[in-house]
Structures are given as structure tokens and as C-alpha cells.
Amino acid sequence: NQLQESIPDLMLLDIEMPKMDGFEVASYVRNDERLKDIPIIMITSRTGAKHKDKAMEIGVNEYLGKPFQEGELLETIESLVTDSASNG
Question: Which of 26, 53, 75, 80 would disulfide-bridge 39, Cβ 3.0–4.6 Å?
Fold first, then answer.
């Protein structure tokens, strides 16, 4: 519902979320013409190749495992937001 009201600069998703899992949200975003270019970072405890591969196939930009390093996350956010701003 929130994505209908405003478009964020970036999304942070976990695989395990209430109502819709992160894969479903990422798929929804990537298949919506208005939202498809939003950078997505998935942060999850599911660090196996199967989950990462599925996320990347959907179009997630970055996949970080928990626990994550705050510095790495901030650098990733800055890079994606900067790239997104220069491309759009």
C-alpha cells in the first residue's frame, strides 16, 4: 500500500517478513513499471546460494547476510542511490 502513495529512493528487504516475503515484494517491485528501477538490498540470515540466486534472478541489486556490517550497508546504500540518481 505504501508503494502506491510514494516511491522510495531505495528498499531494504528481508526474506522473512509478515504478509509478503521479501521475494514476493521484490518481484512485485520489479514487475511494476513505476517501481522497477528502485534499488533493492536484501538483508537476511538466509545466506545460502539457493536464496541468494533466487533474489538475484528476481533483480535484487545487493544481497547481504546477517549479521551485517553497518559500514558495508551504508556504502552499499550510498553507491546504489548515487547510481540510481545518475541513471534516472
Answer: 80
